[in-house]
Amino acid sequence: MVFTLKIFRKFRLLNICISLFLLIIMFSSTSHAEWAEWIIDASLSTQYRDNINYIYIPDEKREDFVTAPAISLGRYYQLGEYTRLRLTADISSEIFGRYHKLDSVVAGPSFVLVQKLGLGHDIPWISLKGSASYLTVDDSNRDSMIYTAVINAGKYFGERIDLQAGYLFTARRGKDLNAAELGASGNVFDLDSQRISLIANFLVAPRLVITPGYFYNTGDFLSSAGAEYIRAIKRFSKANILDDAYGETLWTYKMHGFSHQLLLGASYALTGHLSLNTDYSRVLGRSSGWNYYENIAKFAIMYSF
Prior knowledge:
A 12-stranded antiparallel beta barrel has the order 1-2-3-4-5-6-7-8-9-11-12-13. The chain is globular. It has helices at residues 2-7, 12-30, 230-233, and strands at residues 34-49, 64-78, 83-96, 104-116, 125-137, 144-157, 161-174, 191-205, 208-225, 239-243, 250-269, 274-287, 290-304. 10% of the residues lie in helices and 61% in strands. It is built from 3 helices and 13 strands. The longest helix is centred in the N-terminal third of the chain and has 19 residues, at 12-30. By secondary structure, the protein is mostly beta strands.
């Protein structure tokens, strides 16, 4: 509750989403094309992460439980026989059980343009997604704009198998902060990254879907370590700051690297709109000769209308 009151004093995020949603409604009323349906997607998830500061030194890892509510409001727009446009105003939050300075809210608009390549259940499809969001964090040094561009493609194989592949580009633009060392950059939260994803969905029972997935990530990432490790790290870091978001002064720095992420998930449909979801991920990253590992276990309840 303290977190909620603290974050939502920044009403600009709510105002952004409310204004965007009203624009969607106004646009639908003046458009000559046909709107297919409303969108109300909501979820509440909790996850355990054993390396939230993403450090290669096992004794320096910080772990925490993260609760994440999210909601998207908008409409589908039928552009053509095989073409659909989704417009939404999205808002989500992360609430940390221990490190409350990392608590955050992110809000902004997004669109998804979906093109089927013909008629029929088994016909391939391709989608283009874009978003622009504002991230506000209890530690205001982390406030940023976040831009994403996504291309996905998929195909059903019969009634039980769905295969998807995708590419994601993310650009985060943060504040120009004071660097931890003279002559270094303080733009720690200016991050560019790319991700390639391969996902399969298997309908193993009328209400149960099993999802294995693989993600390859490359680009900039953040890490935080104690003072005793600065000498080893600083000559490889692209930018760095002194940071107290973890309850003590750490050295937060930007590195360039890559990671492999393996995921196994399951979704059980309670009704036509409500589902229970769980997944486990193992992340194996590498940068400047060091290996980074993280385990993520997640449980979520999701509603889609």
